[in-house]
């Protein structure tokens, strides 16, 4: 995908090869046969170029983000920015486009697409650092600009309301460094603003966990992944008794304390989602089976640790669907499996079951 001076060498070798082939055929078969074969070779080469270009575009689409009806590929977004910028301040168009995004990852990629479409950028990469220092690479993409002779690497950072830091690392020609730095920083600020809005949209106001709507986002993201995944379904024991005996205000305190304890027992990157009422879903990626059992035990013990409320022992029944690395995840099936596992745990209460899948 990279463009560089090596193309000149390739062109020279191609011309030399064509000349050599023409001369060789001319010596043995005559000029008419020689030029006929070369003509057909050029046609075949052009067809091959078109096929290769299509493959390249498909690969770029995979790199930037898959095409779906709800989320168009970012190659399309790049072209939209190139062809349809209407405002004097083109960043206004980016702000409008960001309002259409439903995940932080897509918002970050949309910002990168804008920069690729409007600035002479050779390469741009994005990564996120969590408050605990865990790093996730979002993507690395090459732009239309040639590899600069006088290359400069810009590193731009912005933090969201939850302490996650988005880092844009941009490779440019040093001549354009100051201008791209200013525009890139403004783009980053718009992306983080959207991140913060998404945090509000997908956060349960009572507990601070993610809400049910966010679960769909996560499941779409991990569906088909071949990495190991553990999906925990947690149902609190005796919660109805707390509400009936002590009132809903005390029940709300229980829910907030349970989420606080679960966050303390998990990594900052692990997703805690309030599924409904006193039910929660936790999604942990890249986790071994042995650690899955350890996490389930730790969650069970930390929730059961007294006192959440006086006189009523609040514990948890935990069901886990665990997928080994290798096979693709069927996210919808995994949620059902976790639900079946928690149903079994609920029969005994204050316990957990792990159901293993492929």
Main β sheet profile? 5 strands, mixed
| Annotated CATH architecture of the largest domain | 2-Layer Sandwich
Structural class: alpha+beta
- Radius of gyration equals 28 Å
In DSSP terms (H or I, runs of 4 or more residues), the helix count works out at 11
Broad CATH class of the largest domain:
Alpha Beta
Number of domains: 3
| Intertermini distance | 36 Å
DSSP, total strands: 9
Annotated CATH topology of the largest domain: Alpha-Beta Plaits
Mean pLDDT, as a whole number?
A: 84
* Poorly predicted regions: 1-8, 50-70
What best-fitting shape do the alpha-carbon axes yield? elongated
Classify the helix fraction into a percent range. Answer: 40-55%
The share of residues in extended strands comes to 15-25%
CATH superfamily of the largest domain: Reverse transcriptase/Diguanylate cyclase domain
SSE string, helix = H, strand = E?
HHHHHEEEEHHEHHEEHEHE
Give the strand order of the largest sheet, numbering strands 1, 2, ... along the chain.
6-7-5-8-9
Q: How does this structure look, described?
A:
The chain is of the alpha+beta class and 358 residues long. The protein folds into 3 domains: 6-64; 74-201, Beta-Lactamase (2-Layer Sandwich); 212-357, Alpha-Beta Plaits (2-Layer Sandwich). Helix content is 53%, strand content 20%. The protein has a 5-stranded mixed beta sheet with strand order 6-7-5-8-9, sandwiched between helices. It has a 4-stranded antiparallel beta sheet with strand order 2-1-4-3. α1 (6-29) runs antiparallel to α2 and α3 crosses α5. The radius of gyration is 28 Å and the shape is elongated. The chain starts with 5 loop residues before the first helix and ends with a strand. 29% of the residues are buried. The model is unreliable at 1-8 and 50-70 (pLDDT under 50).
């Amino acid at each position: 995908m990279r463009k560089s001076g090596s193309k000149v060498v390739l062109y020279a070798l191609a011309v030399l090869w064509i000349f050599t082939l023409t001369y060789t055929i001319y010596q043995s078969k005559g000029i008419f046969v020689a030029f006929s074969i070369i003509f057909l070779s050029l046609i075949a080469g052009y067809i091959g170029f078109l096929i290769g270009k299509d493959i390249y575009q498909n690969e770029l689409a995979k790199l930037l983000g898959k095409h779906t009806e709800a989320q168009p590929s970012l190659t399309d977004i790049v072209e939209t920015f190139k062809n349809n910028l209407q405002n004097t301040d083109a960043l206004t168009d980016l702000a409008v486009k960001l309002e259409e995004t439903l995940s932080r990852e897509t918002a970050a990629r949309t910002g990168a697409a804008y920069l690729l479409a409007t600035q002479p950028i050779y390469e741009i990469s994005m990564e996120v650092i969590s408050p605990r220092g865990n790093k996730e690479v979002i993507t690395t993409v090459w732009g239309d600009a040639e590899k600069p002779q006088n290359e400069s690497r810009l590193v731009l950072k912005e933090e969201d309301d939850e302490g996650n830091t988005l880092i844009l690392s941009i490779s440019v020609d040093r001549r354009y460094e100051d201008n791209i730095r200013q525009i890139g920083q403004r783009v980053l600020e718009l992306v983080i603003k959207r991140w913060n809005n998404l945090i509000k949209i997908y956060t349960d106001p009572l507990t601070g966990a993610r809400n049910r709507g966010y679960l769909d986002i996560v499941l779409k993201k991990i569906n088909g992944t071949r990495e190991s995944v553990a999906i925990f379904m947690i149902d609190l024991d005796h919660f109805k008794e707390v509400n009936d005996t002590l009132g809903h205000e005390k029940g709300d305190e229980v829910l907030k304390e349970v989420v606080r304890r679960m966050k303390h027992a998990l990594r900052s990157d692990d997703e805690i989602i309030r599924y409904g009422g006193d039910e929660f879903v936790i999604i942990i990626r890249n986790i071994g089976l042995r650690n899955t059992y350890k996490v389930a035990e730790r969650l069970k013990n930390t929730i059961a640790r007294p006192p959440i409320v006086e006189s009523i022992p609040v514990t948890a029944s935990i069901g886990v669907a665990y997928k080994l690395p290798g096979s693709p995840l069927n996210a919808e099936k995994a949620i059902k499996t976790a639900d079946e596992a928690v149903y079994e745990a609920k029969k005994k209460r204050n316990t957990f079951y792990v159901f293993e899948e492929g």
